[in-house]
C-alpha cells in the first residue's frame, strides 16, 4: 500500500457543526490550566523550504505529558455529571497509553475508581504510569482493538461508565465528548497564531482512531466560514487505518504490529470520525519508526520535547512523497501531541 495519498473524496463545500463553546471555559477552570506553547522553528522551516514552521507543544498539558488530558477531563466530567447521585463509580476505558492515564487521573480527581484495559504491545513504562494514577490495569492478549472490546464488555458486565475515545455504531455520545474536549487545543492555537501574525496553510495531525483528527476537521470545517487550511493525517506505517480507509473510500480495519508510536497503534477508524475524514481531510501520510525517531531527535535540538507520536508530523513533512505542495510561502503547523515522557 502507498504511504502517502491525497484524499479523492475531499469536498471543499462540506462543513460541520462547531464544538460547544463551554468546553474551553471548563478547562480554564481546572487547577493548573494554561495554554500550551506554540514554538516557532525558523531553522527547520528553512531546511524544508517553507515560510514558517510552528509546533503546538503538548508535552505538558494539565500536568500530563500529552494532549489527551483535554478530551478525558471533559468526557469524565460529562459522564460523572450524567450519573450524579449514583455514588462512587467505576470508569472503564481501553488505551495504548496516554488516554488511559488521563482518564485515570481525572477519575481519581473526582473521587472515582478507574479500570484500564491495555494491549499486550503497550510498553511497561506506560502501564506503570497508568497504575501510578491509582487505576487497576488489565493487560489483554491482543491489540488495541481487542482491548477496546474487552473494556466495552467489562463496562456492560459490571455497570461501569465506559469513557472510550473511539466510537462504533451505538456508542458515539461519549467519544463525541472527547472530541469536543480537544477543541480547546485549537482555540488556543488560533489565538497564538494571530499573536504571531501567522495563518496556517497546512496542519499535520498525529492520528490513531481519528478523534483528534476529527477535532481538527471540526475546527477547520465548521459552519459557513470554513477555513481553507489543509489538514493532513499522520500515522505509523504499521497501523495506517485512516490511509487505508481514505484510499479504499470506506472504513477499513488493518492488522497492526508493535511500533514506537504506541499511542497511534490503532487498526480501526472511529465511526464518529469517519464522515469528517471522508469529506474534510486533505491528505494522509504514513511514517516508519526510524523516521519518527529521527524527527524526535531533530525537534529536541530545537527545544521541542517530543515522543515518537508527537514527532510523527515532522517525519511526515520529510516524506519523499509528501502529497501536498510546500512552497516558500507556506505556513505549516505541527501538532506535537506528546512529550518524550509519554511512554
UniProtKB/TrEMBL annotation:
**The keyword Cell cycle appears for this protein:** no
Q: Does the keyword Lipid biosynthesis apply?
A: no
**Record's Gene3D superfamilies?**
3.40.50.1100
Q: Which cofactor does it need?
A: pyridoxal 5'-phosphate
Give the signal sequence positions. Answer: none
Query: Which UniProt keyword terms apply here?
Result: Pyridoxal phosphate
Q: Coiled-coil regions in this chain? A: none
**Can you give the residue ranges of the Tryptophan synthase beta chain-like PALP domain?**
31-337
Query: Which protein, by its recorded name, is this?
Result: Diaminopropionate ammonia-lyase
According to its UniProt entry, this protein's organism is: Dactylosporangium darangshiense
Per the UniProt record, the lineage of the source organism begins with: Bacteria, Bacillati, Actinomycetota, Actinomycetes, Micromonosporales
Amino acid at each position: 500500500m502507498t504511504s502517502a495519498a491525497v484524499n479523492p473524496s475531499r469536498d471543499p463545500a462540506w462543513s460541520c457543526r462547531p464544538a460547544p463553546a463551554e468546553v474551553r471555559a471548563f478547562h480554564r477552570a481546572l487547577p493548573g490550566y494554561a495554554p500550551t506553547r506554540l514554538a516557532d522553528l525558523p531553522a527547520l522551516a528553512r531546511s524544508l523550504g517553507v515560510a514558517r514552521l510552528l509546533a503546538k507543544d503538548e508535552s505538558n498539558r494539565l500536568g500530563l505529558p500529552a494532549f489527551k488530558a483535554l478530551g478525558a477531563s471533559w468526557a469524565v466530567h460529562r459522564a460523572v455529571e450524567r450519573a450524579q447521585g449514583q455514588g462512587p463509580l467505576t470508569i472503564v476505558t481501553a488505551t495504548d497509553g496516554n488516554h488511559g492515564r488521563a482518564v485515570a487521573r481525572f477519575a481519581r480527581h473526582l473521587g472515582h475508581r478507574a479500570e484500564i484495559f491495555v494491549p499486550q504491545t503497550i510498553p511497561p513504562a506506560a502501564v506503570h504510569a497508568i497504575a501510578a494514577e491509582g487505576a487497576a490495569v488489565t493487560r489483554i492478549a491482543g491489540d488495541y482493538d481487542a482491548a477496546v472490546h474487552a473494556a466495552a464488555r467489562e463496562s456492560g458486565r459490571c455497570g461501569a461508565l465506559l469513557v472510550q475515545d473511539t466510537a462504533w455504531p451505538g456508542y458515539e455520545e461519549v467519544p463525541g465528548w472527547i472530541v469536543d474536549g480537544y477543541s480547546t487545543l485549537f482555540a488556543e492555537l488560533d489565538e497564538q497564531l494571530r499573536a504571531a501574525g501567522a495563518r496556517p496553510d497546512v496542519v499535520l495531525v498525529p492520528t490513531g482512531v481519528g478523534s483528534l483528527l476529527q477535532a481538527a476537521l471540526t475546527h477547520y470545517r465548521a459552519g459557513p466560514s470554513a477555513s481553507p487550511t489543509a489538514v493532513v493525517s499522520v500515522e505509523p506505517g504499521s497501523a495506517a487505518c485512516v490511509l487505508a480507509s481514505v484510499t479504499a473510500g470506506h472504513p477499513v480495519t488493518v492488522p497492526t504490529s508493535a511500533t514506537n508510536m504506541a499511542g497511534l497503534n490503532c487498526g480501526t477508524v472511529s465511526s464518529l470520525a469517519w464522515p469528517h475524514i471522508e469529506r474534510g481531510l486533505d491528505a494522509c501520510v504514513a511514517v516508519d519508526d526510524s523516521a519518527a525517531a529521527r524527527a524526535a531527535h531533530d525537534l529536541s535540538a530545537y527545544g521541542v520535547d517530543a515522543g515518537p507520536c508527537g514527532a510523527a508530523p515532522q517525519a511526515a513533512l520529510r516524506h519523499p512523497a509528501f502529497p501536498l505542495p510546500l512552497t516558500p510561502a507556506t505556513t505549516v503547523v505541527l501538532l506535537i501531541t506528546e512529550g518524550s515522557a509519554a511512554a
